[in-house]
């Protein structure tokens, strides 16, 4: 029988999760799973020549208990010689601002902290999270209970590339929670227990405490069997759905999906194309269930003008020929909009703009990782090679959005102004550095999370602003 470490090593090799000499940023909460993951990576450190660093995220939810857990993780990392960083975030605030669940807000902020830490390291590397085989089954059962399509039954992937270029790995998906606890017991290694894990107000905890034990009574290998079924379903799903992106391109119209074109495909493909359409248009589709997708597909043959509301403030409308994401009408219409295009610049070239209240100087320069990133109210830098659309300095437009999270999450500019309590009469006079409808910098206020400078950056756009 394979040892615990050999089992995980084989899983890593089979799924090509690690490369020789790379950096791995591991999220460590202090619980059994994440402590085990840290120890596994340290056990494999010499074999793979890994650079391991750990991040503990304090979500602002559990008070002193969470503070103590952070101290435990820091002490553990110091004892093992692992670089440690603690990220303090405010999940309740994000949940309130973005009208999402506390659990989802914590997840988004946790990944943002991991991504930011990884990107400031040695060429990014991988981000390792400690999901195990039990977690995967809990996810599948939860998706089934709330209503899901085939994709939701596939569970988690060992390797998940993200749109921002980072890669999430889950080396412990091949082992069950009991195996993890035995591994730590053999090492005589302590860990902490999150008190919220015992709270059955969380649906996943009820699955963990009530449903999984019954499944194991029916068959002791239930978790392994469900995971194997999910793996087979994933292969089938990928083989049949690889065409979905091609079909989406083929059925796109001027604003959305041409309804008549998509209706020619099977129902399952219609739902997948709509799913990918929403991903592209809205940037995320969490909390959208199978029932929502059924309603969305029904819109393909619905009468003109019919609408449905989806989670996250998304509205879908059956327009004359197309299925479109309906834009929320903003009552606050910008007055006297203006825009100044910025020409494409090469290294060493600069461009200046003079406005009534501001002078703006822009310059493209070569960048080295040793340089310090400025963080001044009126001076910012941007990775110039990540900017693909034409840049301009302009006033606000209806529909403007700004990326506020490293994982791509955006916020309407209007909502940002409201949150910052910027008076309505001042909003039209604030200059914006924009790439199309995407705001890179609300000058004098906030910089977007887009086009961030990392160790891989070679050219930066320096922007300095002076008030007249």
Could you describe the 3D structure shown?
The structure is a single chain. This protein has 17 helices and 20 strands. The chain is of the alpha+beta class. The chain folds into three domains: 4-234, 3-Layer(aba) Sandwich (Rossmann fold), CATH 3.40.50.620; 243-325, Chorismate Mutase Domain, subunit A (Up-down Bundle), CATH 1.20.59; 339-467, no CATH class. It has a six-stranded mixed beta sheet, sandwiched between helices. The chain has a six-stranded mixed beta sheet with strand order 11-15-18-19-16-17. A four-stranded antiparallel beta sheet has the order 7-10-9-8. Helix 7 (133-146) crosses helix 10 and helix 14 crosses helix 15 (290-298). The longest helix is centred in the middle third of the chain and has 20 residues, at 222-241. The protein is globular, with a radius of gyration of 24 Å.
Throw out a few tags for this protein.
single chain; 468 residues; alpha+beta; Rossmann fold; Chorismate Mutase Domain, subunit A; 3 domains; six-stranded mixed sheet
Count, helices: 17
**Could you say which overall geometry the principal axes of the C-alpha atoms support?**
globular
Main sheet specs: 6 strands, mixed
CATH H-level superfamily title of the largest domain: HUPs
Count of domain modules: 3
- Helical content stands at 25-40%
Oligomerization category of the chains in this entry: single chain
- Radius of gyration, in angstroms, nearest whole number: 24 Å
- Report how far apart the termini are: 75 Å
Kindly report the CATH topology of the largest domain. Answer: Rossmann fold
Mean pLDDT: 87
Q: Could you say what the CATH architecture of the largest domain is?
A: 3-Layer(aba) Sandwich
By secondary-structure content and strand pairing, the structural class works out as alpha+beta
**Low-confidence segments:** none
Beta strands, count:
20
Strand line-up in the sheet with most strands: 3-2-1-4-6-5
């Amino acid at each position: 029988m394979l040892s615990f470490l050999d089992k995980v090593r084989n899983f890593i090799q089979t799924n090509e999760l690690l490369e020789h000499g790379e950096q791995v940023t591991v999220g460590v909460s202090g619980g059994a799973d994440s402590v085990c993951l840290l120890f596994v990576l340290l056990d494999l450190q010499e074999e793979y020549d890994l650079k391991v660093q750990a991040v503990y995220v304090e979500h602002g939810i559990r008070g002193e208990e969470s503070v103590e857990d952070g101290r435990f993780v820091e002490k553990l990392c110091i004892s093992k010689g692992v670089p440690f960083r603690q990220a303090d975030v405010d999940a309740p605030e994000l949940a309130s601002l973005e009208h999402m669940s506390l659990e989802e807000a914590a997840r988004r902020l946790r990944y943002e902290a991991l991504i930011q830490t990884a990107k400031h390291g040695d060429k990014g590397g991988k981000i390792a999270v400690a999901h195990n085989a039990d977690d995967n089954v809990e996810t599948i059962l939860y998706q089934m209970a709330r209503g899901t399509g085939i994709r939701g039954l596939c569970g988690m992937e060992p390797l998940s590339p993200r749109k921002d270029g980072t890669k999430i790995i889950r080396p412990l998906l091949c082992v069950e929670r009991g195996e993890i606890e035995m591994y730590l017991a053999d090492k005589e290694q302590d860990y902490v227990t999150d008190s919220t894990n015992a709270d059955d107000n969380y649906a996943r905890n009820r699955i963990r405490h009530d449903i999984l034990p019954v499944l194991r009574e029916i068959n002791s290998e239930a978790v392994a069997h469900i995971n194997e079924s999910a793996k087979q379903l994933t292969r089938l799903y990928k083989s049949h759905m690889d065409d979905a992106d091609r079909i989406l391109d083929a059925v796109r119209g001027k604003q959305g999906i041409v309804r008549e074109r998509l209706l020619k495909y099977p129902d399952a493909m219609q739902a997948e194309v709509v799913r990918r359409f929403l991903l592209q248009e809205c940037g995320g589709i969490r909390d959208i269930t199978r029932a929502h997708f059924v309603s969305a597909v029904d819109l393909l043959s619905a009468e003109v003008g019919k609408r449905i509301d989806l989670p996250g403030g998304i509205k879908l409308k059956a327009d004359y020929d197309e299925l479109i994401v309906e834009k929320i009408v903003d009552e606050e219409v910008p007055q006297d909009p203006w825009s100044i295009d910025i020409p494409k610049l090469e290294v060493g070239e600069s461009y200046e703009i003079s406005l009534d209240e501001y002078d703006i100087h822009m310059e493209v320069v070569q960048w080295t990782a040793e340089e310090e990133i400025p963080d001044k109210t009126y001076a910012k830098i941007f990775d110039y090679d990540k900017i693909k659309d034409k840049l301009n300095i302009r006033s606000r437009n209806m529909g403007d959005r700004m990326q506020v999270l490293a994982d791509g999450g955006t916020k309407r500019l209007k909502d940002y102004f409201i949150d910052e309590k910027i008076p309505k009469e001042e909003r039209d006079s604030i200059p914006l550095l924009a790439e199309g409808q995407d705001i890179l910098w609300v000058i004098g206020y906030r910089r977007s999370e887009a086009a961030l400078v990392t160790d891989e950056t070679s050219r930066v756009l320096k922007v300095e602003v002076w008030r007249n």
